[in-house]
Specification:
Layout (H helix, E strand, L loop, with lengths): L5 H28 L4 H6 L11 H10 L1 E2 L5 E2 L2 H32 L5 H10 L9 H10 L6 H5 L6 H12 L3 H9 L4 H12 L1 H16 L3 H6 L8 H8 L8 H21 L1 H12 L1
Helix pairs in contact: 1-14, 3-14, 4-8, 4-11, 5-8, 11-15, 13-14
Length: about 280
Amino acid sequence: MIERRRGLTILSHAILLTGVAIVAFPLYLTLIASTQSAEQIAQSTPMSLWPGGHALETYRTALFGGATSAGTKIPGAASMMWVSLVSALIIAIGKIAISMLSAFALVYFRFPFRNVVFWMIFVTLMLPVEVRIGPTYEVVAGLGMLNSYAGLTVPLIASATATFLFRQFFLTVPDELVEAARVDGAGPMRFFKDILLPLSTTSIAALFVIQFIYGWNQYLWPLLMTTNEEMYPVVMGIKRLIGGESFTEWNVVMATAILAMLPPALVVMLMQKWFVKGLVDVEK
């Protein structure tokens, strides 16, 4: 039996609350700054920690763009968020689809050097995009995929981690299901669609959350791939707002940062139950 001590309970809660405050304070500061004017942020040292009265105006400018009171032209975040959303969805769905099919082939098909192929896939974990970014850029540019969704997403779709996780999950599927499907005359793709796909729902949900956030937060690869402002993702848009002019509209920068955080946060909140369950099922 674990003995409860009031002093230790208070201390543990105090440590947890302190940790939450440290993590949440930058977010609170960003939110407060987005409700003030650029002049208020620049003139007050330190910045006021109370909400201002310019939230509606600031978020309208951040979302749809336009000229500010200081004469700075702000590009709208709406189009950049759309680019980020499409790219994140293509990356997440593409990674899951390719990883499931590759794991399915590695587990249920017999072909020469099957284990060698698996380890070749697994070794690519040591070769992320940042390591091979030069040759990858040369190939993509040679194929004419600059400033396109294909160029933003195709080099990032393959995932050795997701392949490994699906392979480990497929290995736990009882052989009786395979035999039953074979007796019923089900082909490989029907077995994959009718049995493996429903069984993998929680794993798919967990990986979708991880890969969506991964795709949404991409910065280095889009920085090389895009020269057209219409194809800039929102993460690049935030960087462009900082130091791009003689006077930085920090309220608009903070509002754009808040808007950029909303879709990933919404995905995590809506799929939290499936995300946790998927991680637990994968561990099992």
